[in-house]
Structures
1.
Amino acid sequence: MWDKLRAYHKTVADRRFADMVDAERAAAFATQAGDMRFDYAKTNIDDTARDLLIDLLDQADVAGKRDAMFAGAAINETEGRAVLHTALRNLDGGPVLVDGQDVMPAVLETLARMGKFASDVRDGRYTGQGGQITDVINIGIGGSDLGPAMAVKALAPYHDGPRCHFVSNVDPADIGATLRQCDPTTTLVIVASKTFTTIETMTNARTALAWMREKVTDPGAQFAALSTADDKTAAFGIASDRVFGFEDWVGGRYSMWGPIGLSLMMAVGADAFHAFLRGGQAMDLHFKSAAWVENMPAMLALVGIWHNQICGYSTRAVLPYDNLLSRLPAYLQQLEMESNGKGVSMDGADLAVDSGPVVWGEPGTNGQHAFYQLIHQGTRVIPCEFLVAARGHEDDLHHQHQLLVANCLAQSEALMRGRSLPEATAKVADRFSGDELERQARHRVFAGNRPSTTLAYPQLTPFVLGQIIALYEHRVFVEGAVLGINSYDQWGVELGKELATDLQPVIEGRADATSKDGSTAALVSFLQKAGV
Ligand SMILES: O=P(O)(O)OC[C@H]1O[C@H](O)[C@H](O)[C@@H](O)[C@@H]1O
């Protein structure tokens, strides 16, 4: 199948797809899920390419794998675990069995406990030593940080709870700056860690505990924990009624739907959090039931596979024309690159095709004034994924929102159309002539024919955010299933952690660097002389 796709791509690689984009194509190369529209008409995918891409889904039995995931099979084979973040948003769905046991009662009970705790904090029934909680600090990293941090920012218009801060980096600059903004007597610290062993999180948690101890007689009472490891949360001194547990079938980067979302719930309240879950659930239902050609996560994944594995474009820009989604690119970097950045397939063989792409991006219009130069005129083609809302939340400034939307659509149009040499020449003909005219015009040529997709939605509500995040999760699943990757482990993060543990005594001067390579030893020596 890959060979067929590559061979077909060769036959169409040089055509100008810009010339194909009429109303009929726009209708046929778009999918609708709820009230969201995903447009991929501005790509070089035609009916034949799409059929061949859909064949990949059948060849990889993506439908069977999808059903196995929702049914609680241990599809994370290297860790022997089910993959059931979908159960966390299965609000009124049926039972979900893991090893013959329905997990839904425990999921719903934890959700209800979270809701009660969040409303107690928000309404002042649970207080700090100094009174009503004014600040919540979520200490976590990776999946225990990026999801809630992204979502709290995204749902800022709905934020009516305590201020929320996110501390992730072991760099003391992160926690230092945060603690200086907070009063320990009215602060709740949430230690978010699936394993409760992550060195950055545990180090920051101890720092926060020491900070609170200076002003608060029972600092443990102003701590909550989100984890799968209740023995470790108890050892840290957090009472079980403020521990919100989840199971190992929730991957870290898929965990914001459950306890890891507690800070989001503190910010926006239980009702808005439930609406977020319902948005995710709506996307699950769509993913499970829509035919492939209408299936938004499947088509998003196939467009990505076309661009990365077939066309060879190795990066993808995510460009939300929605400032509230400014952390979405960072969130997606973990979701996509930690899930599908692997060189070995499920059976342990080398991957036959490239792994998932480099994902990067910034909100528009900011990026336009920074890196879009390269996207438009650089030598590499960078497929762009635009996101845009019909309406923002600043009703009085709707004209500004319209300008934002115009910019978003203008960028995808510009990428596709480009500007030819005659057009560029006409632009500057009044200022230059002869050789200089041609030279000046060439700098103003845009090759065009550069692919992009656009995800459009009415407004970034909690429900829509849930739809968007679940869309991307399922896209990662489909991509992983087609590539033959286990999207749910992350062995690639281990080696660096082990070496950091080895290096710590060297940096502290308790061990020497002689066992290290020359470059590392020289850097240690430089940093030691400079005061580390
Ligand atoms: O939630 P934790 O157990 O503290 O893990 C936090 C993060 O660290 C790990 O290194 C993984 O790469 C991530 O997938 C995970 O989200």
2.
Amino acid sequence: MTTLDHPVSPAAPPPAEPLTSIVVDGVSKEFALQYQRTLKKIALAKLRKQKVKDTFLALEDVSFKVPQGQSIALMGLNGSGKSTLLKLISGVMKPDAGQVLTRGRISGLIATGAGFHQQLTGRENIFMNAAILGMSKEETEAKFDDIAAFADVGRFMDTPVGNYSSGMFARLGFSVAVHVDCDIFVADEVLAVGDRPFKKKCMKRMEEIRESGITMFYVTHAAASVRRMCDRVIVLESGKVGYDGDVDEGIKYLHYDDSDDEPDVADEDSADEELASDI
Ligand SMILES: Nc1ncnc2c1ncn2[C@@H]1O[C@H](COP(=O)(O)OP(=O)(O)OP(=O)(O)O)[C@@H](O)[C@H]1O
């Protein structure tokens, strides 16, 4: 990942045209699929003239630009390449072809608990995670009470996160991510974790992030929250951009509004609708 010049400064006068926040230009990412794990199995497979490894193109020639302040829902079926694209944008991974350019500081949540150390306490992990996201110790100290209040893990703040439930883990990670001053916020299915009150709090916070002019790029399957929070939908299909444009058209494109959904899927959708309207 390369950085675009001139990070957004709060002191800068508002430009006539929004600055470009993210450029994804002809990006491809290939993964190696290892069929045999041990040396013995590899040797046996080679003797039997079986394939020991293969490659898989998770992203193929993906291109788009995002203006500063736009809020994008990255959608698509399981395995279509959403998380991989998010990792390339956040700089966790490098593309094999093409380039990704971003402007300013990036924060967000790529994987629940990524960068957390099981043996360290919630408090220690907040400081470590915040440092990874580019916050100084003083900055973290100043925001610590807000981060702790948002995570709301109570007395568990001073116990090792290895003893946390998966929801508590997610709350802590999300809480640090949303308290970082950033220009781009990326998030992978944040609303898929946590209980209902926490989901509500996350959505509210994400709305605040959006309203503050931060570029948002997040993966979701929830049509109602996309309608509420996004200006644009990008749909990935087997690693390629299948759709890029208006939100309502994007949801239609995905058939997420079809009335012949399975009952449990319809329930999930109406819960999402309810959650979005609750806020
Ligand atoms: N490190 C890796 N090694 C090999 N294959 C990988 C790796 N990471 C991802 N893949 C493969 O790349 C494809 C895209 O994965 P990715 O996680 O980006 O999809 P996704 O759209 O986020 O899926 P989901 O909705 O299930 O989270 C999948 O087939 C996955 O198995």
